[in-house]
Amino acid sequence: GNSVTQMEGPVTLSEEAFLTINCTYTATGYPSLFWYVQYPGEGLQLLLKATKADDKGSNKGFEATYRKETTSFHLEKGSVQVSDSAVYFCALGSSGAGSYQLTFGKGTKLSVIP
Amino acid sequence: DSGVTQTPKHLITATGQRVTLRCSPRSGDLSVYWYQQSLDQGLQFLIQYYNGEERAKGNILERFSAQQFPDLHSELNLSSLELGDSALYFCASSVDGANQPQHFGDGTRLSIL
User: Is A47 exposed, middle or buried (CB count within 10 Å of its CB: 0-12, 13-18, 19+)?
Assistant: First the structure.
């Protein structure tokens, strides 16, 4: 079956540091890949997505590239801010027989300190 | 604001009871998804409905059921509740069932005492 593995947290960084959160996946076929972010007390928000190999998703300074050869979708940001503190989820989307579902990683909590 | 509305925000009840969680999708979205988020299991897909019909089932217990009504709102029914059912339950919606981003509500926190 499909699965997503992302780096364990928590991750603590100083403001303006470089961020990488690793994500690898196992899937059959050609899934779409997503990063979602969850701020305290809120639901998940879509951060970025990529639908095919070599696509790069980007939003709010975050980037991730769909690497089929390494089955990875690592999240990066060049300079984090305190407001980026949240839990980040990598997810894989798969279709089948008229259905669609997301498989999530366990989440990585990021804390950015001033 | 994602446009997905979930009620209630918090629910406290006892073991053996039954509860109903409600979700109103974003305007124009036909697909509704339910997820359970717990500390030990993470975020798990429960069930998907598309335009009133069940489309996919994930790790949903037999004690749980859901439906999507003609106005596209959805309800998740949890019965014979156990302590382990304490979790955050999220609803998400998307335009259709294929490859579109899902928009999440703020969740219902269920606490079983």
Answer: buried
Is there a contact between B95 and B29 (Cβ–Cβ < 8 Å)? yes
Contacting residues of B for A99, CB less than 8 Å apart: 48, 50, 55-56, 97
What SS3 string covers chain A? CCEEEECCCCEEEECCCCEEECEEEECCCCCEEEEEEECCCCCEEEEEEECCCCCEEEECCEEEECECCCCECCEEECCCCHHHCEEEEEEEEEEECCEEEEEECCCEEEEEEC
Contact B42 A106 (CB under 8 A): yes
Measured between CA atoms, the residue of chain A closest to residue B10 is A41
- Over residues A89-112, the pLDDT tens digits come to 999 988 776 677 889 999 999 999
**How many beta-carbon contacts under 8 Å exist across A and B?**
65
Q: Please report which helix (H) or strand (E) contains residue B11, including its range.
A: strand B10-13
Residue pair A76/A62 in contact (Cβ under 8 Å)? The answer is yes
Q: pLDDT tens across B2-47, in order?
A: 899 999 999 999 999 999 999 999 999 999 999 999 988 888 999 9
Q: What share of chain B is helix, strand, coil (3-state, %, to 5)?
A: 5, 55, 45
Q: Extract the tokens encoding B57.
A: 């089932």
Are A87 and A80 contacting, i.e. CB atoms less than 8 angstroms apart? no
